[in-house]
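Anyone opening a protein record will find just a pair of labelled lines. With that in mind, the following record should read easily:
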Amino acid sequence: MTTTTTGIEISAHARGFVPGDGVRLAYGYWPGRGAPILALHGQTASHVNFAGIADRLAGRRPILAPDIRGRGDSDTPEEGYDFEQYARDLAAAMRAFGMGPSIVVGHSMGAWIGAALAAAEPDLVSGLVFIDGGYPVHAPPGTTFEELFELLLKPSLARLERTWSSEEEYLDFWRGQPTFRPEDWSPYWEAYLRNDLGGEAPRLECKPYYPAVKADWFNMADREAAGERIRRTSVPIRIITAEYGVMWGADPIQTDENVEAVKELGNVESARRLEGTTHYTIGFSEPGISRCADLIVEFADHVEGAG
């Protein structure tokens, strides 16, 4: 059971809507003991990204995970796709829930958004956890960021440009991608994929708004802006990175160089690389979800104890 400061009691996983900054945000909420953790998903994801980690928290902490604008079941305006606007949306949602200074966890692009929120609203953030995100990658020599956009996000982009006759057709599409091995396919990944679709068969469409996804990519590529947000953030940061990139054997997205850059810019409490994980499995499969859950709780206890 979780009781918020607004008097709302939540005794089981709940889904609903909360006001953002001029938009309505969908959210998932998993109950637990203590202050809620705000969990922020990546570029083409949704709050269901955190279902596995929430289950592994086993009630140790509540999690509020919104769908950012243009993703999941949140509103999709034509404008407002930048990290500062996302931060304004999330600040409004946190205040609607009566949340005070909170641990903010961001996976992939969610780490950039978490830094923007901490920089703009220091009264709402007590600590940051970056899960395989937060600082830009270098484009390989001879490769533009436009080309890298297509290379790294090819399966994610392909799914946004077509319709699907059924959920099973969509699942089969992902089974044919190198993103997950058969042994990595988890109930959390399948639930996430089913939630990714909207509309009615036989014309199901993926929910992420393509113009938002593309705008976000180039915002993430801005190293100067990313560094400035981290410099303005005084709260402790825990970095958790995957061993591999978007597929097994690929170079990690958050390299050792990236981790060292964040250490120079911000108050990094620790950095952990999780062996046996990719950028995706770190949030959907074992051992990623259990290790992330334990590291988040440990960090929250540490930050609150120090306070």
Q: What stands out?
A: The chain has one domain: 8-138+223-306. Residues 8-138+223-306 form a domain with the Rossmann fold fold (CATH 3.40.50.1820). The first strand starts at residue 2 and ends at 3. The mean pLDDT is 92.
